[in-house]
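Tokens in:
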């Protein structure tokens, strides 16, 4: 449907921008101000993206439940499998992104969401899972 096509391209734009800019500022020597600006934009953007992704996931699950896997060709099965893996990875990236926050989530200066965890060891664990799941998503 037109709605799914829009959701697809909005997701692609947000995810590709965040992956490229996030890894760029992490691995290339950029001025601290640029790194902070990119982190602020990316945290805000991906937080706003969460409800869109949940909506997309909902449509995907409803659609998948209506599909009889046995009637699919092997290429369609492979596509369904690949999409399921992508949805799963994006879910892990979004959840760990929120849980790794060591400060409140400032969404474009419009509103704040309280930092969910305070245990530094747990936050460090979610940082590690976030970075690795971002690498998997890039692949
Ligand atoms: C599609 C969703 C997301 C993608 C693709 C993504 C991608 C990335 C990437 C590539 C990095 C750099 C990793 C590194 O340091 O090597 C990063 C860092 C980070 N991400 Fe995410 N992320 C997403 C969602 C989120 C969300 C929802 C939050 C929190 C609300 C978040 C918070 C952070 C933070 C705090 C950092 C460290 C940057 C800093 O503050 O210095 N991310 N992300």
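Residues out:
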């Amino acid at each position: 449907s037109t709605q799914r096509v829009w959701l697809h391209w909005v997701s692609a734009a947000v995810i590709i921008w965040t992956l490229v800019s996030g890894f760029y500022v992490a691995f290339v020597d950029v001025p601290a101000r640029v790194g902070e600006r990119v982190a602020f934009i990316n945290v805000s953007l991906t937080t706003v993206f969460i409800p869109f992704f949940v909506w997309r996931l909902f449509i995907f699950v409803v659609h998948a439940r209506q599909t009889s896997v046995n009637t699919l060709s092997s290429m369609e099965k492979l596509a369904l499998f690949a999409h399921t893996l992508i949805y799963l990875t994006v879910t892990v990236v979004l959840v760990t992104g929120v849980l790794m926050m060591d400060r409140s989530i400032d969404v474009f200066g419009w509103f704040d969401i309280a930092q969910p965890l305070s245990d530094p060891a747990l936050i460090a664990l979610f940082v590690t899972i976030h970075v690795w799941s971002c690498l998997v998503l890039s692949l």
